[in-house]
From TrEMBL:
Keyword Transcription: yes
Highest classification ranks of the organism: Bacteria, Bacillati, Actinomycetota, Actinomycetes, Pseudonocardiales
TM region(s), chain numbering: none
Swiss-Prot/TrEMBL GO biological process terms: negative regulation of DNA-templated transcription
Pfam families assigned to the protein according to its UniProt record, in alphabetical order: TetR_C_1, TetR_N
Protein name: Regulatory TetR family protein
InterPro entries the UniProt entry points to: Homeodomain-like_sf, HTH-type_TetR-like_transc_reg, HTH_TetR, Repressor_TetR_C, Tet_transcr_reg_TetR-rel_C_sf
């Protein structure tokens, strides 16, 4: 491992998340650590949202001063990188079946469940491809699922981008709609009823047919919707694989 003085020419946040720089020694009470700071940051973001996250807010949650945090993380952006990597720790471990479709489905749902548990993650700007340890382990596990298929490396990465886009889109939509949050209870259940009040069947016959099927009746099928979208995407991947055999 590089010493604290080694110049890796990497962003500070990347050095921090990969442990490529030295950490300060703990104080006499051994009360503060990088892991504890990151956990506190995740807890603040989970509870209050990303807008509430600040070095001072995290320090207050731990019961210390903001200045003491800067011995471990140099800036809020660095803390965010560490937090995102921390919540991805559970995304890449699956009970591998050896069947590419089943394994990719497990990985996709792991990712989705992580984003739903930690909705603030989708508000963190994506500034480049995966670079943190746990995100890369998810990518490695995804590529391993496709081992043995005739897909090229470029095609495998394209499949991962497709799956990840579906996951992120579903998570973002649910967060934007704020399904299940107290202040938004009643929004989705009333949508179908509202449309019936507004729509003239003569002008909106197709929408009325959809309404009659109960499509807009809220019954918490968001995960079913995601499953349907994922299955259709994987159908396309399966067709590509078969075409190359």
């Amino acid at each position: 491992m590089p010493s604290e003085e080694t110049d890796t020419s990497l962003p500070a946040s990347v050095e921090a998340v990969w442990g490529l720089r030295g950490r300060p020694a703990r104080g006499p009470k051994r009360a503060l650590s990088l892991e504890r700071i990151v956990a506190a940051g995740v807890a603040v973001a989970d509870r209050e949202g990303l807008d509430a996250l600040s070095m001072s807010r995290v320090a207050n949650a731990i019961g210390t001063s903001a200045m003491s945090l800067y011995r471990y993380v140099s800036a809020k952006d660095e803390l965010l990188t560490l937090m995102v990597d921390a919540v991805y720790a559970d995304t890449w471990t699956i009970a591998a079946t050896g069947r590419w479709r089943a394994d990719l489905t497990q990985l996709a749902f792991n990712n989705l469940h992580t984003l739903r548990r930690h909705p603030w993650v989708v508000r963190v700007p994506v500034t480049g491809p995966p670079i943190t340890p746990h995100q890369l382990r998810w990518l490695e596990a995804s590529l391993a699922a496709l081992r043995g298929t005739p897909l090229s490396g470029k095609e495998k990465i394209a499949v991962m981008l497709l799956v990840n886009s579906l996951v992120r889109n579903d998570a973002t939509l649910m967060i934007d709609l704020r399904v299940g949050e107290p202040e938004s209870e009643g929004k989705l259940p009333d949508y179908g009823k509202t449309l019936r009040l507004l729509l003239d069947p003569k002008h909106f016959p197709e929408l009325i047919d959809v309404l009659d099927e109960g499509v807009f009746d809220y019954d918490d099928t968001s995960e079913q919707d995601f499953s349907w979208s994922l299955e259709r995407a994987l159908d396309g991947v399966a067709a590509l694989i078969e075409s190359k055999r």
